[in-house]
Design goal:
alpha+beta; Methylamine Dehydrogenase, Chain H; four-stranded antiparallel beta sheet; 30 strands
Protein backbone atom coordinates (compact mmCIF):
# COMPACT_ATOMS: atom_id res chain seq x y z
CA UNK A 1 0.00 0.00 0.00
CA UNK A 2 2.88 2.32 0.85
CA UNK A 3 4.41 1.57 -2.56
CA UNK A 4 1.12 2.49 -4.28
CA UNK A 5 0.91 5.73 -2.29
CA UNK A 6 4.49 6.56 -3.16
CA UNK A 7 3.75 5.94 -6.85
CA UNK A 8 0.63 8.11 -6.75
CA UNK A 9 2.38 10.98 -5.02
CA UNK A 10 5.17 10.87 -7.60
CA UNK A 11 2.55 10.75 -10.35
CA UNK A 12 0.78 13.78 -8.85
CA UNK A 13 3.98 15.74 -8.64
CA UNK A 14 4.85 14.80 -12.19
CA UNK A 15 1.39 15.82 -13.36
CA UNK A 16 1.68 19.16 -11.57
CA UNK A 17 5.08 19.80 -13.14
CA UNK A 18 3.70 18.78 -16.49
CA UNK A 19 0.75 21.14 -16.03
CA UNK A 20 3.02 24.00 -15.01
CA UNK A 21 5.28 23.36 -17.96
CA UNK A 22 2.33 23.14 -20.28
CA UNK A 23 0.98 26.39 -18.91
CA UNK A 24 4.29 28.09 -19.53
CA UNK A 25 4.40 26.69 -23.02
CA UNK A 26 0.86 27.85 -23.54
CA UNK A 27 1.72 31.37 -22.52
CA UNK A 28 4.85 31.23 -24.62
CA UNK A 29 2.91 29.91 -27.60
CA UNK A 30 0.25 32.59 -27.27
CA UNK A 31 2.98 35.17 -27.03
CA UNK A 32 4.69 33.86 -30.11
CA UNK A 33 1.39 33.58 -31.95
CA UNK A 34 0.46 37.14 -31.06
CA UNK A 35 3.88 38.30 -32.14
CA UNK A 36 3.54 36.42 -35.44
CA UNK A 37 6.69 34.42 -34.78
CA UNK A 38 5.07 30.90 -35.15
CA UNK A 39 6.30 28.42 -37.81
CA UNK A 40 6.67 24.62 -38.51
CA UNK A 41 7.00 22.39 -35.45
CA UNK A 42 5.25 24.83 -33.09
CA UNK A 43 4.39 23.73 -29.47
CA UNK A 44 1.15 21.86 -28.52
CA UNK A 45 -1.17 24.24 -26.65
CA UNK A 46 -3.38 23.00 -23.73
CA UNK A 47 -6.27 25.20 -22.81
CA UNK A 48 -7.29 26.07 -19.26
CA UNK A 49 -10.29 23.72 -19.27
CA UNK A 50 -8.09 20.68 -19.89
CA UNK A 51 -5.81 21.63 -17.02
CA UNK A 52 -8.72 21.90 -14.60
CA UNK A 53 -10.07 18.53 -15.73
CA UNK A 54 -6.71 16.84 -15.11
CA UNK A 55 -6.44 18.32 -11.63
CA UNK A 56 -9.92 17.05 -10.80
CA UNK A 57 -9.05 13.54 -11.96
CA UNK A 58 -5.85 13.47 -9.86
CA UNK A 59 -7.72 14.75 -6.82
CA UNK A 60 -10.28 11.96 -7.22
CA UNK A 61 -7.49 9.38 -7.49
CA UNK A 62 -5.85 10.57 -4.26
CA UNK A 63 -9.15 10.62 -2.42
CA UNK A 64 -10.08 7.15 -3.64
CA UNK A 65 -6.67 5.83 -2.49
CA UNK A 66 -7.21 7.17 1.03
CA UNK A 67 -10.69 5.63 1.06
CA UNK A 68 -9.27 2.23 0.00
CA UNK A 69 -6.66 2.41 2.78
CA UNK A 70 -9.38 2.88 5.42
CA UNK A 71 -11.80 0.26 4.04
CA UNK A 72 -9.17 -2.30 2.96
CA UNK A 73 -10.84 -2.72 -0.41
CA UNK A 74 -10.60 -1.28 -3.91
CA UNK A 75 -12.27 2.00 -4.90
CA UNK A 76 -13.35 3.04 -8.38
CA UNK A 77 -12.18 6.33 -9.79
CA UNK A 78 -13.45 7.86 -12.94
CA UNK A 79 -15.65 4.78 -13.42
CA UNK A 80 -12.72 2.63 -14.68
CA UNK A 81 -9.57 3.25 -12.54
CA UNK A 82 -9.06 0.79 -9.55
CA UNK A 83 -6.54 0.85 -6.72
CA UNK A 84 -5.62 -2.68 -5.39
CA UNK A 85 -4.31 -3.64 -1.94
CA UNK A 86 -3.63 -6.86 0.05
CA UNK A 87 -6.57 -7.95 2.19
CA UNK A 88 -4.35 -10.07 4.53
CA UNK A 89 -1.11 -8.54 5.68
CA UNK A 90 2.22 -10.40 5.75
CA UNK A 91 2.94 -12.11 9.12
CA UNK A 92 5.09 -10.27 11.60
CA UNK A 93 8.72 -11.45 11.72
CA UNK A 94 10.07 -13.44 14.68
CA UNK A 95 11.27 -11.19 17.48
CA UNK A 96 14.53 -13.10 17.63
CA UNK A 97 15.09 -12.76 13.91
CA UNK A 98 18.36 -11.06 13.08
CA UNK A 99 19.56 -11.21 9.52
CA UNK A 100 22.24 -9.01 8.02
CA UNK A 101 20.84 -9.71 4.55
CA UNK A 102 17.48 -8.10 5.47
CA UNK A 103 15.67 -11.31 4.56
CA UNK A 104 12.47 -11.58 6.57
CA UNK A 105 10.92 -14.71 5.08
CA UNK A 106 12.15 -17.83 3.37
CA UNK A 107 10.50 -20.48 1.24
CA UNK A 108 12.75 -23.27 2.61
CA UNK A 109 11.65 -26.34 4.55
CA UNK A 110 9.84 -25.66 7.82
CA UNK A 111 11.69 -26.29 11.07
CA UNK A 112 11.20 -29.75 12.56
CA UNK A 113 11.56 -30.85 16.14
CA UNK A 114 14.97 -32.23 17.11
CA UNK A 115 15.20 -36.01 17.13
CA UNK A 116 15.19 -37.69 20.53
CA UNK A 117 18.67 -38.24 21.96
CA UNK A 118 17.58 -41.38 23.81
CA UNK A 119 18.87 -44.56 22.22
CA UNK A 120 16.91 -47.75 21.83
CA UNK A 121 18.05 -50.41 24.32
CA UNK A 122 17.20 -53.98 23.39
CA UNK A 123 15.92 -55.71 26.54
CA UNK A 124 15.76 -59.18 25.02
CA UNK A 125 18.61 -61.65 24.77
CA UNK A 126 20.30 -61.77 21.38
CA UNK A 127 21.19 -65.46 21.76
CA UNK A 128 20.53 -68.24 24.28
CA UNK A 129 22.94 -71.13 24.84
CA UNK A 130 21.94 -74.31 26.65
CA UNK A 131 24.20 -75.15 29.59
CA UNK A 132 22.98 -78.46 31.07
CA UNK A 133 24.44 -79.37 34.47
CA UNK A 134 25.67 -75.82 35.03
CA UNK A 135 26.68 -75.80 38.69
CA UNK A 136 24.26 -73.70 40.78
CA UNK A 137 26.87 -72.31 43.21
CA UNK A 138 27.04 -68.56 43.86
CA UNK A 139 30.75 -68.59 44.75
CA UNK A 140 32.14 -70.23 41.60
CA UNK A 141 33.29 -68.53 38.37
CA UNK A 142 32.55 -70.99 35.59
CA UNK A 143 32.63 -68.95 32.34
CA UNK A 144 35.08 -66.49 30.80
CA UNK A 145 35.32 -64.78 27.38
CA UNK A 146 38.72 -64.54 25.69
CA UNK A 147 40.30 -61.89 23.53
CA UNK A 148 40.05 -64.32 20.59
CA UNK A 149 36.24 -64.44 20.97
CA UNK A 150 36.24 -67.89 22.55
CA UNK A 151 34.11 -68.58 25.62
CA UNK A 152 35.22 -71.18 28.15
CA UNK A 153 32.22 -72.86 29.81
CA UNK A 154 32.57 -75.36 32.65
CA UNK A 155 29.70 -77.83 33.02
CA UNK A 156 30.54 -79.65 36.21
CA UNK A 157 33.58 -81.75 35.18
CA UNK A 158 33.76 -80.94 31.45
CA UNK A 159 35.24 -77.78 29.93
CA UNK A 160 33.83 -76.62 26.58
CA UNK A 161 35.16 -73.92 24.25
CA UNK A 162 32.47 -72.07 22.31
CA UNK A 163 33.58 -70.07 19.24
CA UNK A 164 31.42 -66.93 19.19
CA UNK A 165 32.24 -66.27 15.52
CA UNK A 166 31.49 -69.67 13.97
CA UNK A 167 29.24 -71.02 16.72
CA UNK A 168 31.26 -74.23 16.96
CA UNK A 169 31.72 -76.04 20.28
CA UNK A 170 34.78 -78.09 21.25
CA UNK A 171 35.22 -80.25 24.33
CA UNK A 172 38.63 -79.36 25.75
CA UNK A 173 38.75 -82.03 28.46
CA UNK A 174 36.62 -84.20 30.74
CA UNK A 175 37.83 -84.63 34.31
CA UNK A 176 35.74 -87.74 34.79
CA UNK A 177 38.11 -89.52 32.42
CA UNK A 178 41.12 -88.61 34.57
CA UNK A 179 42.22 -91.63 36.66
CA UNK A 180 42.95 -89.37 39.65
CA UNK A 181 39.44 -87.92 39.50
CA UNK A 182 37.96 -91.40 39.30
CA UNK A 183 39.92 -92.41 42.39
CA UNK A 184 38.63 -89.35 44.28
CA UNK A 185 35.09 -90.21 43.18
CA UNK A 186 35.45 -93.69 44.65
CA UNK A 187 36.73 -92.25 47.94
CA UNK A 188 34.02 -89.54 48.15
CA UNK A 189 31.11 -91.84 47.48
CA UNK A 190 30.73 -91.17 43.75
CA UNK A 191 31.37 -87.41 43.81
CA UNK A 192 34.41 -86.75 41.64
CA UNK A 193 36.45 -83.63 41.01
CA UNK A 194 34.64 -80.75 39.34
CA UNK A 195 35.72 -77.51 37.72
CA UNK A 196 35.35 -74.54 40.06
CA UNK A 197 36.83 -71.61 38.09
CA UNK A 198 38.18 -70.59 34.66
CA UNK A 199 40.16 -67.56 33.43
CA UNK A 200 41.78 -66.67 30.09
CA UNK A 201 45.23 -65.12 29.86
CA UNK A 202 45.13 -61.67 28.23
CA UNK A 203 46.51 -62.97 24.90
CA UNK A 204 43.67 -65.50 24.75
CA UNK A 205 45.58 -68.67 23.90
CA UNK A 206 45.91 -70.15 27.41
CA UNK A 207 43.08 -70.83 29.86
CA UNK A 208 43.62 -71.44 33.56
CA UNK A 209 41.27 -73.93 35.23
CA UNK A 210 40.81 -74.39 38.98
CA UNK A 211 39.16 -77.48 40.40
CA UNK A 212 37.52 -78.75 43.56
CA UNK A 213 40.72 -80.48 44.64
CA UNK A 214 42.71 -77.22 44.86
CA UNK A 215 44.68 -77.75 41.63
CA UNK A 216 45.19 -75.08 38.96
CA UNK A 217 45.78 -76.31 35.40
CA UNK A 218 47.01 -74.40 32.35
CA UNK A 219 45.64 -75.53 28.97
CA UNK A 220 46.78 -74.67 25.45
CA UNK A 221 43.41 -74.35 23.71
CA UNK A 222 44.71 -74.34 20.14
CA UNK A 223 46.42 -77.70 20.55
CA UNK A 224 44.05 -79.05 23.27
CA UNK A 225 47.06 -79.75 25.43
CA UNK A 226 47.58 -79.64 29.20
CA UNK A 227 50.70 -77.55 29.79
CA UNK A 228 51.14 -77.79 33.56
CA UNK A 229 49.51 -78.38 36.93
CA UNK A 230 50.09 -76.04 39.85
CA UNK A 231 49.31 -77.37 43.32
CA UNK A 232 49.37 -75.72 46.72
CA UNK A 233 45.78 -75.00 47.73
CA UNK A 234 44.16 -77.17 50.38
CA UNK A 235 40.60 -76.62 49.08
CA UNK A 236 38.72 -75.73 45.91
CA UNK A 237 39.81 -72.73 43.83
CA UNK A 238 36.72 -70.54 43.32
CA UNK A 239 38.28 -67.58 41.47
CA UNK A 240 41.23 -66.82 39.17
CA UNK A 241 42.60 -63.66 37.53
CA UNK A 242 45.67 -62.87 35.40
CA UNK A 243 48.12 -59.96 35.61
CA UNK A 244 50.52 -60.52 32.69
CA UNK A 245 52.49 -63.66 33.68
CA UNK A 246 51.24 -63.70 37.30
CA UNK A 247 48.09 -65.68 38.08
CA UNK A 248 46.17 -65.06 41.32
CA UNK A 249 44.01 -67.89 42.70
CA UNK A 250 41.64 -67.73 45.68
CA UNK A 251 40.41 -70.76 47.58
CA UNK A 252 37.66 -71.76 50.00
CA UNK A 253 39.79 -71.22 53.11
CA UNK A 254 40.29 -67.52 52.25
CA UNK A 255 43.88 -67.77 51.03
CA UNK A 256 45.14 -66.20 47.79
CA UNK A 257 48.17 -67.60 45.97
CA UNK A 258 50.26 -65.77 43.39
CA UNK A 259 51.76 -67.95 40.64
CA UNK A 260 54.53 -66.89 38.26
CA UNK A 261 53.85 -69.25 35.36
CA UNK A 262 57.26 -68.58 33.76
CA UNK A 263 59.24 -70.43 36.40
CA UNK A 264 59.18 -73.97 37.72
CA UNK A 265 58.69 -72.85 41.33
CA UNK A 266 55.48 -71.02 40.45
CA UNK A 267 54.27 -70.12 43.98
CA UNK A 268 55.74 -66.65 44.56
CA UNK A 269 53.33 -65.15 47.11
CA UNK A 270 50.53 -65.81 49.58
CA UNK A 271 47.92 -63.25 50.63
CA UNK A 272 46.33 -63.97 54.00
CA UNK A 273 43.51 -61.69 55.08
CA UNK A 274 40.16 -63.31 54.41
CA UNK A 275 38.59 -65.72 56.84
CA UNK A 276 36.16 -67.38 54.41
CA UNK A 277 36.01 -68.37 50.74
CA UNK A 278 37.39 -65.89 48.20
CA UNK A 279 34.76 -65.67 45.44
CA UNK A 280 35.63 -62.48 43.50
CA UNK A 281 39.01 -61.11 42.44
CA UNK A 282 40.33 -58.56 39.90
CA UNK A 283 43.63 -56.82 39.17
CA UNK A 284 43.45 -53.05 38.57
CA UNK A 285 43.73 -51.83 34.94
CA UNK A 286 46.82 -49.70 35.66
CA UNK A 287 49.22 -52.59 34.99
CA UNK A 288 47.93 -54.51 37.98
CA UNK A 289 49.26 -52.29 40.73
CA UNK A 290 46.41 -53.35 43.02
CA UNK A 291 44.48 -56.58 43.49
CA UNK A 292 40.90 -56.38 44.83
CA UNK A 293 39.48 -59.52 46.45
CA UNK A 294 35.94 -60.16 47.68
CA UNK A 295 34.97 -62.91 50.07
CA UNK A 296 32.15 -64.66 51.90
CA UNK A 297 33.39 -62.85 55.04
CA UNK A 298 31.65 -59.69 53.64
CA UNK A 299 34.98 -57.89 53.19
CA UNK A 300 36.84 -56.41 50.22
CA UNK A 301 40.63 -56.29 50.55
CA UNK A 302 42.96 -54.20 48.40
CA UNK A 303 46.45 -55.63 47.97
CA UNK A 304 49.65 -54.12 46.59
CA UNK A 305 51.02 -56.73 44.22
CA UNK A 306 54.59 -55.61 44.96
CA UNK A 307 54.19 -55.94 48.72
CA UNK A 308 51.84 -58.74 49.74
CA UNK A 309 52.54 -58.74 53.47
CA UNK A 310 49.24 -57.03 54.37
CA UNK A 311 46.27 -55.46 52.59
CA UNK A 312 46.47 -51.75 51.76
CA UNK A 313 42.80 -51.21 52.61
CA UNK A 314 40.13 -53.34 54.27
CA UNK A 315 36.63 -52.37 53.12
CA UNK A 316 33.89 -53.58 55.46
CA UNK A 317 30.73 -51.72 54.37
CA UNK A 318 29.00 -54.74 52.77
CA UNK A 319 26.58 -56.87 54.79
CA UNK A 320 26.88 -60.05 52.70
CA UNK A 321 29.32 -62.00 50.54
CA UNK A 322 31.10 -59.95 47.87
CA UNK A 323 31.48 -61.75 44.54
CA UNK A 324 31.04 -58.85 42.09
CA UNK A 325 34.38 -56.98 41.94
CA UNK A 326 35.15 -54.71 38.96
CA UNK A 327 37.52 -51.80 38.25
CA UNK A 328 36.54 -48.77 36.17
CA UNK A 329 38.54 -48.93 32.90
CA UNK A 330 38.84 -45.15 32.46
CA UNK A 331 39.28 -44.32 36.18
CA UNK A 332 41.75 -46.97 37.38
CA UNK A 333 41.45 -45.89 41.02
CA UNK A 334 37.66 -46.43 41.09
CA UNK A 335 36.43 -49.84 42.22
CA UNK A 336 32.84 -51.15 42.12
CA UNK A 337 31.71 -54.02 44.36
CA UNK A 338 28.36 -55.76 44.83
CA UNK A 339 26.95 -57.48 47.90
CA UNK A 340 24.90 -60.64 48.27
CA UNK A 341 21.32 -61.23 49.37
CA UNK A 342 21.56 -59.53 52.77
CA UNK A 343 23.27 -56.47 51.27
CA UNK A 344 22.02 -55.90 47.70
CA UNK A 345 24.17 -52.75 47.39
CA UNK A 346 26.62 -51.59 44.74
CA UNK A 347 29.40 -49.59 46.33
CA UNK A 348 32.00 -47.40 44.64
CA UNK A 349 35.38 -46.95 46.29
CA UNK A 350 38.35 -44.65 45.96
CA UNK A 351 41.20 -47.16 45.95
CA UNK A 352 43.73 -44.52 46.96
CA UNK A 353 41.97 -43.46 50.16
CA UNK A 354 39.76 -46.49 50.76
CA UNK A 355 36.68 -44.28 51.08
CA UNK A 356 33.23 -45.28 49.81
CA UNK A 357 32.17 -42.52 47.39
CA UNK A 358 28.70 -43.85 46.51
CA UNK A 359 26.28 -46.64 47.40
CA UNK A 360 23.17 -47.79 45.50
CA UNK A 361 20.56 -50.24 46.76
CA UNK A 362 19.60 -52.50 43.84
CA UNK A 363 16.96 -54.48 45.72
CA UNK A 364 18.51 -57.80 44.71
CA UNK A 365 21.61 -59.97 45.16
CA UNK A 366 24.50 -58.64 43.03
CA UNK A 367 26.52 -61.35 41.25
CA UNK A 368 28.34 -59.39 38.53
CA UNK A 369 29.38 -55.90 37.39
CA UNK A 370 30.65 -54.90 33.93
CA UNK A 371 31.73 -51.39 32.82
CA UNK A 372 31.54 -49.81 29.36
CA UNK A 373 33.89 -46.93 28.59
CA UNK A 374 32.26 -45.71 25.36
CA UNK A 375 28.77 -45.29 26.84
CA UNK A 376 29.99 -44.48 30.38
CA UNK A 377 27.62 -47.06 31.83
CA UNK A 378 27.68 -50.20 33.95
CA UNK A 379 25.52 -53.31 33.86
CA UNK A 380 24.85 -55.47 36.91
CA UNK A 381 23.67 -59.08 37.24
CA UNK A 382 21.24 -60.09 39.97
CA UNK A 383 20.31 -63.30 41.73
CA UNK A 384 17.63 -63.52 44.41
CA UNK A 385 15.08 -62.35 43.85
CA UNK A 386 14.75 -60.53 40.52
CA UNK A 387 16.91 -62.66 38.16
CA UNK A 388 17.66 -59.76 35.81
CA UNK A 389 20.34 -57.48 34.42
CA UNK A 390 20.14 -53.75 35.12
CA UNK A 391 21.78 -51.04 33.03
CA UNK A 392 22.93 -47.89 34.84
CA UNK A 393 24.34 -44.52 33.76
CA UNK A 394 27.58 -43.69 35.52
CA UNK A 395 28.24 -41.72 37.71
CA UNK A 396 24.62 -40.59 38.20
CA UNK A 397 23.51 -44.26 38.62
CA UNK A 398 20.27 -43.47 36.85
CA UNK A 399 18.62 -46.71 35.76
CA UNK A 400 18.48 -47.06 31.96
CA UNK A 401 16.77 -50.43 31.52
CA UNK A 402 16.08 -53.86 33.02
CA UNK A 403 16.99 -56.88 30.88
CA UNK A 404 14.83 -59.88 31.80
CA UNK A 405 14.65 -63.45 30.60
CA UNK A 406 16.34 -65.75 33.13
CA UNK A 407 14.04 -67.93 35.21
CA UNK A 408 16.51 -68.49 38.07
CA UNK A 409 19.25 -66.52 39.78
CA UNK A 410 22.08 -65.16 37.65
CA UNK A 411 25.42 -66.47 38.90
CA UNK A 412 27.97 -64.72 36.69
CA UNK A 413 28.41 -61.92 34.13
CA UNK A 414 31.30 -61.52 31.66
CA UNK A 415 31.92 -59.04 28.78
CA UNK A 416 32.75 -59.79 25.15
CA UNK A 417 36.18 -58.75 23.82
CA UNK A 418 34.71 -55.88 21.74
CA UNK A 419 32.74 -54.54 24.72
CA UNK A 420 29.33 -54.56 22.99
CA UNK A 421 27.95 -57.76 24.50
CA UNK A 422 27.70 -59.42 27.91
CA UNK A 423 27.05 -63.06 28.72
CA UNK A 424 25.06 -64.03 31.80
CA UNK A 425 25.08 -67.55 33.22
CA UNK A 426 22.23 -68.57 35.49
CA UNK A 427 20.89 -71.45 37.54
CA UNK A 428 18.23 -72.07 34.86
CA UNK A 429 21.06 -73.78 32.91
CA UNK A 430 21.21 -71.17 30.17
CA UNK A 431 23.80 -68.63 29.06
CA UNK A 432 22.19 -65.56 27.53
CA UNK A 433 23.96 -63.02 25.32
CA UNK A 434 22.81 -59.41 25.52
CA UNK A 435 23.86 -56.39 23.43
CA UNK A 436 23.39 -53.30 25.62
CA UNK A 437 26.17 -51.32 23.91
CA UNK A 438 26.01 -51.65 20.10
CA UNK A 439 28.81 -50.18 18.07
CA UNK A 440 28.46 -46.57 16.98
CA UNK A 441 29.01 -46.86 13.21
CA UNK A 442 29.72 -43.15 12.78
CA UNK A 443 32.46 -43.23 15.41
CA UNK A 444 33.95 -46.39 13.91
CA UNK A 445 34.07 -44.81 10.45
CA UNK A 446 35.65 -41.67 11.90
CA UNK A 447 38.36 -43.76 13.54
CA UNK A 448 39.07 -45.58 10.27
CA UNK A 449 39.14 -42.36 8.24
CA UNK A 450 41.81 -40.71 10.41
CA UNK A 451 45.11 -40.51 8.48
CA UNK A 452 48.12 -42.22 10.07
CA UNK A 453 50.47 -40.00 12.05
CA UNK A 454 53.86 -39.56 10.40
CA UNK A 455 56.88 -40.42 12.52
CA UNK A 456 58.68 -37.40 11.08
CA UNK A 457 56.07 -35.08 12.61
CA UNK A 458 56.95 -36.43 16.07
CA UNK A 459 60.67 -35.85 15.79
CA UNK A 460 62.29 -32.85 17.48
CA UNK A 461 65.41 -31.05 16.37
CA UNK A 462 67.67 -30.07 19.24
Amino acid sequence: MEAASHYLLNSTAAAANSTSATGNKENSGNKQENEGGGGEGGEFVVDQQTIQQRRKVMANIILSQESAATTGGASATGGSDRILSFRTKAPAPDEAHINSQKVLYSTGKPKTANASKERHICTKADRILDAPEFFDDFYLNLIDWSRNNHMAVALYDVLYIWNAVSGSIVELFDKSKDPASQQNANQDGGIGDYISSVSWVKEGNIVAVGDSNGVVELWDVKHSKLMRKMRGHASRVATLDWNAHVLASGNRSGTIHLHDVRVADHHVGTLNGHTQEVCGMKWSPDQGKLLASGSNDNQVLLWDGRNASAPVHTLTAHQAAVKAVSWCPWQPKTLATGGGTNCRNIKFWNATTGNCVNSVDTGSQVSGIVWNEEYKEIITAHGFSRYQLTLWKYPSMQKQADLKGHRARILLLVPSPDGTTVASAAADETIRLWIPWPKNEKKEEAKKSKPPVSLFSQQKIR
